[in-house]
């Protein structure tokens, strides 16, 4: 047996320069783009991986990693099987959370928002851009469903490969979402656990002020 690890002794001392209010962009999308560029420059593995958390109808949360595939004025974009657990939970309750764990840079980004389905033509355009193997996998895998074993999955993959020798159409249960952010927190590690946590909070628009605005607050670490 492996020697037991004393988890209480596992810790890192963060030593970054910190994050100040005057370092922030006017809006969280622009700020995220800055940090994302830093993460790419640092060579982080799967830099666009994010943890998506959803909640079931019974109030039970669940989390899994998905890939960010776009970012625009609508929010954070990803694609998935809409018949999966996350797809069914988003259909019942579109409120969700995203987490980008960029620990190499001593940074995290947390997003709270609402997932809105993408139009079908946009879903099709993205699906057509995927490698053929990934397209076939979307057909072969009944995501989140129980299967008898690996052989069942391999047989399903071989079957759809023969069924679609050329172009692979978009499955009916394949879709995409844009998570419209309500809160976006930028977390920067600091020494002595005195981390910087600055959060953008969406202000409700009005007839008088229809332009989207964000309030910025500092949270205690």
Strands, total number? 9
The H/E string reads: HEEEEHEEHHHEEE
N-C termini distance: 38 Å
Oligomer: single chain
Q: Note poorly predicted spans.
A: none
What's the Cα radius of gyration? 20 Å
Portion of residues in beta strands equals: 25-35%
Whole-number mean pLDDT: 92
What portion of residues is helical? 10-25%
Structural class from helices and strands? alpha+beta
The biggest beta sheet is recorded as: 9 strands, antiparallel
Estimate the global geometry from the Cα principal axes. Answer: globular
Compute the number of helices.
Answer: 5
What's the short version?
With 221 residues, this protein is an alpha+beta fold.
Characterise this structure.
With 221 residues, the chain is α+β, with helices and mostly antiparallel strands. Helix content is 25%, strand content 33%. It has helices at residues 28-41, 85-92, 120-129, 132-140, 150-163; strands spanning 49-55, 61-67, 70-72, 75-81, 95-102, 107-117, 174-188, 196-203, 213-219. Strands 1, 2, 3, 4, 5, 6, 7, 8 and 9 form a nine-stranded antiparallel beta sheet that branches. β3 (70-72) and β4 (75-81) form a beta hairpin.
């Amino acid at each position: 047996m492996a020697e037991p690890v004393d988890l209480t002794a596992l810790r890192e001392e963060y030593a970054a320069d910190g994050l100040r209010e005057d370092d922030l962009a006017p809006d969280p999308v622009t700020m995220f783009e800055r940090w994302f560029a830093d993460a790419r420059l640092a060579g982080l593995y799967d830099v666009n991986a994010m943890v998506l958390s959803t909640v079931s109808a019974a109030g039970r949360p669940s989390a899994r990693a998905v890939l960010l595939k776009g970012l625009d004025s609508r929010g954070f974009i990803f694609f998935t099987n809409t018949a999966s657990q996350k797809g069914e939970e988003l259909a019942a309750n579109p409120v969700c959370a995203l987490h980008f764990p960029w620990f190499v840079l001593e940074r995290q980004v947390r997003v709270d928002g609402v997932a809105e389905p993408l139009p079908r033509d946009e879903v099709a355009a993205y699906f057509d851009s995927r490698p053929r193997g990934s397209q076939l996998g979307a057909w072969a895998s009944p995501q989140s469903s129980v299967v008898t074993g690996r052989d069942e999955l391999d047989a399903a993959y071989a079957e759809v490969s023969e069924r679609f020798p050329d172009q692979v159409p978009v499955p009916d249960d394949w879709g995409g979402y844009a998570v419209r952010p309500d809160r976006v927190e930028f977390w920067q590690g600091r020494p002595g656990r005195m981390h910087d946590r600055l959060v953008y909070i969406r202000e409700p628009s009005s007839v008088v002020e229809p332009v989207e605005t964000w309030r910025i607050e500092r949270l205690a670490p």
